[in-house]
Amino acid sequence: MKKPKRVSAFREALGAVEEAKAKNDIKKIKIKDIENPPFHDRTTVSEADIWNLANNIKEVGLINPVILRKKDNGKYERISGYRRIEAVKKLGWKEVDAIVVNVDEKTALLIMLSENIQREDLNPYDEVVSLLQLIAINLDMEEKEIKSFLYKIKNYLSGNIKELSEEEKQMKDVIDGILSKTGKYNFQGFINRLRVLNLHPLIIEAMRTKKLSYSHAVELNKIKDEKTLKKLIKETIEKRLSKDELIKKINAIRGNEIKANPFKEVSKKLRYFHKLPPEKQILIEQKIKEIQQILEQ
């Protein structure tokens, strides 16, 4: 495990942004001189959302400046403010209010993720991915490493692991601080939300583009047939099914699946055949022989 080397640089960069806002150190930057970063924020923004923001800016003005960093080629790289820039383009603006900070690429990504997580309209999938990436970059770790470490802390808190090293305790404190700053999750809540990473791609797409809720997504993931799942996702969104209504539909579908294939549930239970009492094992073996005889007739 590596020590959290970037935390102080990240805090200094955020401090610089807040200081610039406090001093009203805002510059007018030509939009044509603003370039997109080499990374992206993984969020999905619809054309309708951009137009709604553009109309809002037209009425009340641009309240929050975008955040940029100066590049060696004289241009500026966007750190945060993609939607605002696209919105003012719709209005025909040639310049945009901006705060320019002097940071490296990784720190710029940290600021972008931090700003992104604060968005109220961020969908559950992108929210978890952004938080995971924010934690990973803060600790100079790969996302796979940080996921493994998060589960290690979970086992420590539940008593399955007796001790963490001093370095691991420091890393846990960093993670707690990041989660606390977002105001959205405690540690256990964030661990639970990591399950969104393993949802069916159709469900993830619906969460990102159609605002499917986390609780609905988890229930929908119980459906294994892709055609059925696609149909039920559409029905859930269009009819705005409550969680209870969705659960009833899923139970009905899964019940029909069992009726259509009565051996599906039986085969699952037979996996634990060796754990059954001897008398039950003997009875099951007899029944299997009877079934084999019927099939051979």
Helical/strand content category: alpha/beta
CATH homology-level superfamily of the largest domain? Conserved hypothetical protein from pyrococcus furiosus pfu- 392566-001, ParB domain
The number of distinct β-strands equals 5
Number of domains: 4
Mean pLDDT: 83
Strand content: 5-15%
What is the CATH class name of the largest domain? Alpha Beta
Structural notes for this entry:
The protein starts with 6 loop residues before the first helix and ends with a helix. A five-stranded mixed sheet has the order 1-5-3-4-2, with helices on both faces. With 297 residues, the protein is α/β, with parallel strands linked by helices. It has four domains: 111 residues, Conserved hypothetical protein from pyrococcus furiosus pfu- 392566-001, ParB domain; 73 residues, no CATH class; 62 residues, no CATH class; 34 residues. Helices cover 61% and strands 8% of the residues.
Features:
single chain, 297 residues, alpha/beta, Conserved hypothetical protein from pyrococcus furiosus pfu- 392566-001, ParB domain, 5-stranded mixed sheet, 14 helices, 5 strands
How would you concisely characterize the structure shown here?
The chain is built from 14 helices and 5 strands. It has helices at residues 7-22, 47-60, 82-90, 105-117, 124-138, 143-157, 166-182, 187-193, 201-210, 214-220, 226-238, 243-260, 262-270, 278-296; strands at residues 27-30, 34-35, 66-70, 76-80, 95-101.
